[in-house]
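Supplementary Methods, section 5.1.

A reviewer requested that the exact input to the structure prediction be made available. We therefore reproduce it here, unchanged from the version used in the analyses.
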Amino acid sequence: MNRLVAEAPTPGPARPWSFPSWQRHWVDGGTVLAAHLPGQQLAAVALVVDAGATTEPTGQEGVALLTARLLGEGTQVRDAFEFGVAVERLGASWHADVDWDSLRVGFDAPVTALPDAVDLLAEAVRRPAFSPTDVERVRDDRLDELRAELLQPAARASATFNAHTFAAPSRYGRPDGGDPESVAAVTDDDVRAFHAARFAPGAATLVVAGDLSRVDAADLGRRTFSGWTAGMAPVASPVVTPVDGGRRIVVVDRPGSVQSVLVIGHPGPPRAIEDYVPTTTMAIALGGMFSARLNMKLREERGFTYGASAGFGMRRHGGIFAARASVHAEPTAQAVADTVAEIERLQRDGIDADELDQVRRYRAGVFPIQFASPYAVAGALGDLTVHGLPDDYFDRVRHQIAEVPLDAVNEAARRRLHPDRLLTVVVGDASVVADGLREIGAGAVEVVSD
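The structure derived from this sequence is encoded token-by-token as follows.
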């Protein structure tokens, strides 16, 4: 086998590390998680709200993201321009985003400006303006963004994979930020109703990370939660129904495409599983690092692609497993066959001790890098809340990564991979790829227009 890299360097032993120390405060009906990072004068502060995409009413997919973005577009005290000026005067930058299980808004701000930044954050989330003009403008911007995203073959492939993996009206069948149809239907009344139902001190956690040696974290909590009496409406668990089908191939026809984008996978487990570390370790061996099996096969041996990956997307109510690659159009069928074969081999035979040693060393070594900034530490504190993880989770999981046994990893491969249920989505030129795909035994081929 010819390889572009002659010899991979040997990873050294993992260095001692522990997650930054942090404290929890309960203040005026709300919760504050504060991590002291000595010397980090640019702090991160955010409100993590139980208002993710799975809490949206059916037919309003995308309302959570619109709400998050509109929180930075003015309040009942100051309009969008004045809000922006106030942010600039603090030397801060505003963030607003939504994932499946949470909505997060906040600032990167100098430590000395944290009290004023938290006052502004509280004003944004407790007294938003949601003017019809701003709602229309932000919604139109989002629609333009969605149309541009779907022109990208990778985004188109992901949307098609989700839509064919989960049966309607499963929330996971549509993007977490909504699609053009659902976003276009969202009104300013929908935004106000979503905010009224989901934003309350009992559903929100303030996370802050930075050099807090001269910061009173409890005071930040009082500035956020004091006098906030809103109640949270109950929300039913989302509908998450996988499509009951065997192997299938869906080709999204893009005539003239010189590349094909591949997504190959099936429904996956939720985040709260007892074999999280063995499952994710197995997935890294398949497609989570440069020397993983898929990358070595499709890139180094075949020369089909610049890179291939695989992994699990685990959420509160379910998830997906997916392998991904962009390949030359001509060998598309062979690339799909190779990917399916590698998934079958892993599920059947597992990995060996040498592979496990590489993954454990790599993963334990890069694990601390995920928390190199105050923004990342604040995000990790938010994850503890969203997924109900124990306070010592990050220290505990790094130890588990370094010690995970081979039999547990291979049992996870047998249990979590389902080669007989693989859905393959190809975005490419059907006239070039469809006939070959029909010959590889990866399922019936359906060609759909773009």
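The radius of gyration is 23 Å. These observations are discussed further in the main text.
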